Amino acid sequence: MAHELPKLTYAYDALEPFIDARTMEIHWSKHHQTYVNKLNEAITGHSDLAAKSALDLIAHLETVPDAVRGAVRNFGGGHYNHSFFWTVMGKEGRGEPTGALKDAITEEFGGFDKFREQFTKIANSGFGSGWAWLVKDKDGKLAIQWTPNQDSPVSQSLLPVVVLDAWEHAYYLKYQNRRPEYVEAWWNVVDWKAAEKRYKGELFKI
After folding, report:
1. One domain for residues 78 and 105
2. What is the DSSP string of 88-127?
3. Among 174, 6, 156, which Cα is nearest to 85's?
4. Whether 105 and 196 share a structural domain
5. 19, 43, 79, 125: which could join 15 in a potential S-S bond, CB 3.0 to 4.6 Å?
């Protein structure tokens, strides 16, 4: 198998009460695993694709054969996006960014509170299923972005810093159709130390 489900670095219940243990278990072991399985199925028989990382595949979708490009975009994006999502949350959340990331947010958005307000608005108003991102472009400029389905900013040569999964499967067991409550709760589990490492580092690889 070319791709595998990454291990969580915290227990299913580590993000309680904001994200419940049962949702974490199903989200990681069922939904994410399905994306991994479907990606592996899509690239079976394509030895050149099987040799590439998920990052390489979705960052260069134009090089993927037409016959499997849609599947790689959807399932490879699902694998990559979820893998990144797990790493920017943790039980040590509930704070605010510090250091270089804090300075960049202040410069771009006028402070953390204004950034949070804008990010929350995009996360709640994004149509259908998708993801809300804080990204950095090649010039170091920050932006907030919504991507539908399993599309990823890395396909646009952007560096993800923080992401919120706004698919219903990420919150429905606890919050049902109340996405705004989920988004508000999610701010309590953002790992800003991990986010700053992403901001100051390279593209997340898997």
Report:
1. no
2. TB-TT-SS---HHHHHHHHHHHSSHHHHHHHHHHHHHHS-
3. 6
4. yes
5. 19
CA angle 36, 42, 45 (to 5 degrees): 120
Q: Is residue 112 classed as helix, strand or coil in its secondary structure?
A: helix
CB contact at 8 A, 134 and 192: no
Which amino acid, 161? V
Query: Band of the pLDDT at 95, cuts 50, 70, 90?
Result: confident
3 state SS of 66:
helix
Give the domain range for residue 57: 21-87
Q: In what order do the strands lie in the sheet with 142-148?
A: 142-148, 130-136, 159-165
Runs of H (alpha helix) within 9-76: 21-26, 33-43, 47-50, 54-59, 66-71
Distance CA 29, CA 35 (A): 10
Peptide bond preceding 148: is omega within 30 degrees of 0, i.e. cis?
no
166 and 75 in a single domain? The answer is: no
pLDDT in tens, 121-132: 999 999 999 999
In a domain, residue 169? The reply is yes
Q: Do 141 and 117 share a structural domain? A: yes
Short-list 38, 20, 123, CA closest to 79: 38
State how far the Cα of 37 lies from the Cα of 122, in Å rounded to an integer: 30
Residue 140: which CATH number? 3.55.40.20
Q: Token pair for residue 145?
A: 């972005």
pTM over 0.85: yes
Task: Give the residue-averaged pLDDT of 42-69.
Answer: 95
